[in-house]
Amino acid sequence: MNQRARIDFILAGALFCFLAFPAVAQMDVQIGPGPVDPNAVRGSPLDPRNLLLRPQPVEPEPVNPSIRMPRAPYPESARPQPGYPSSYTMTLTRGRATPPGDEPINRARDVAERLMQCWTPPASPMLQEISVRLAFNRAGRTVSPPVVSYIGPNARGEARDALRKSLLQAISACLPLRFTPGLASAIAGRPFAIRFIAPGTGNGGASTQK
User: What percent of the chain clears pLDDT 70, i.e. is strictly above it?
Assistant: First the structure.
C-alpha cells in the first residue's frame, strides 16, 4: 500500500467514526498540556475531593437511663474504710493486757487481747516471744491458716515447738471471734501481725526483752 492509499484509508476510518459515533464528534478533545476546567471533573470519580478520606461525624447513641453498669467487684481488703489502717501491727505482754470480756469486739486492739486471753503458754523460766500473722473475715474466722513468723531465742528445740503449738491451738479455740458490724467491715481481709510476750518465771525472764 502506497502513501496515497494509506491517507485515503485513514480518512475513511475517521469519516466512519464521525458518522457512527456522533457524540464523540461533539467532545472537545485536547491533546497535550493545557488549562483544566475544574467543573469538567466535578462529581466524577476523578474529582480530588472524592479521593480524600474524610472522617464522618458519628452521632452518639441515646443513653437508656434504665440500664446501669455493674460496679467492679472489690475484695473486702480493698474497700476503703475511713479511719482504719490497711494493716495492724501490735505487741502484747501476757498479764498486762486487760481482758476484753465476752462482748463483741469493737476495737482492733481488742482482737489481739482476745487471742491473748485464750492463750496459755508453756511454763518456762525464760521470757518467751512469738509472732503470728493472720487475717479475719467478717464472720470472725481466719481467711487462711495463721503463720508463725518469729519465735524468740529463749525457746529452743522441743520448747520452741511447744510454744508454736500452744499459740496456734489457742487461736483455733478462740474462733470465731465476735466483731461489731463496724469493726467487721473495717478489718475484714486486713493482715494482723501480733507479737505475744510471756514473761518467764525465773530471774532471767526479761533478759531478751527490748
Answer: 59
